[in-house]
């Protein structure tokens, strides 16, 4: 039937199988319908996918690299601590040795000064040292007064008119360690043998020879 109530002509009927009613056409999905959608996953109910073999290998390699770096840092710190300890021990040992040597040297110096031998001028009277005036052992004084010095023996000879007969002979004598020089005319505790390893001082306190702790320092001149 048409809109005005007239029957539809046969050629205007829709084609199809005889006796089969026409099926309505289903709407085609639009191409834009599936675009721009975000698929939401619930982390509490969604099962995470297993990592791929490449991802597993990369994770293992990264963990091994971190372990190697940490081990290298620990070894470097231990080596630094060991070197610092060696330096401290070596420095302490060096300081200890230096302090010990200094203490021994100081003790030796104090002992040498306390046990110093005093050199003084003495007349040789039959091998006995009798204390005399210091000027009699002064070469300049002796020569200016006509005397002479025998350096091979250490004797100093004065002319007869100054000392009277017999010709006086003088030489340096030495006290016992730590003892002062005797007064002129005294023959107490003197010897003409010069000590080799002792500190020797003059009556005024000047050091002629320094001894002790392997040190031998000589200065000035004296008879033997």
TrEMBL record:
Q: Keywords assigned by UniProt? A: Membrane, Transmembrane, Transmembrane helix
Q: Which residues form a coiled coil?
A: none
Give the region (Disordered) as residue ranges: 1-82, 178-224
Q: Which residues cross the membrane?
A: 87-107
Q: Where is the composition biased (Basic and acidic residues)?
A: 1-15, 32-48, 56-80
Low complexity composition bias: residue spans? 178-191, 215-224
Biased-composition ranges, Polar residues, are 199-209
Q: What is this protein called?
A: Uncharacterized protein
């Amino acid at each position: 039937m048409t809109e005005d109530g007239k029957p539809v002509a046969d050629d205007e009927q829709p084609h199809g199988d005889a006796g089969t009613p026409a099926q309505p056409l289903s709407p085609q999905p639009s191409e834009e319908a599936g675009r721009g959608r975000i698929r939401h996953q619930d982390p509490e109910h969604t099962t995470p996918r297993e990592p791929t073999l490449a991802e597993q290998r990369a994770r293992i390699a990264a963990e091994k690299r971190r372990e190697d770096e940490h081990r290298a840092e620990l070894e470097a710190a231990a080596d630094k601590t060991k070197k610092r300890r060696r330096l401290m021990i070596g420095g302490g040992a060096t300081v200890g040795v230096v302090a010990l040597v200094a203490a021994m040297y100081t003790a030796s110096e104090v002992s040498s000064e306390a046990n110093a031998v005093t050199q003084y001028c003495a007349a040789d009277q039959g091998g006995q040292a009798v204390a005399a005036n210091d000027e009699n052992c002064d070469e300049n004084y002796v020569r200016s007064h006509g005397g002479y010095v025998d350096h091979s023996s250490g004797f100093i000879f004065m002319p007869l008119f100054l000392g009277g007969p017999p010709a006086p002979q003088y030489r340096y004598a030495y006290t016992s360690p730590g003892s002062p020089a005797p007064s002129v005319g005294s023959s107490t505790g003197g010897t003409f043998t010069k000590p080799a390893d002792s500190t020797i001082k003059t009556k005024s306190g000047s050091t002629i020879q320094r001894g002790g702790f392997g040190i031998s320092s000589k200065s000035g001149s004296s008879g033997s």
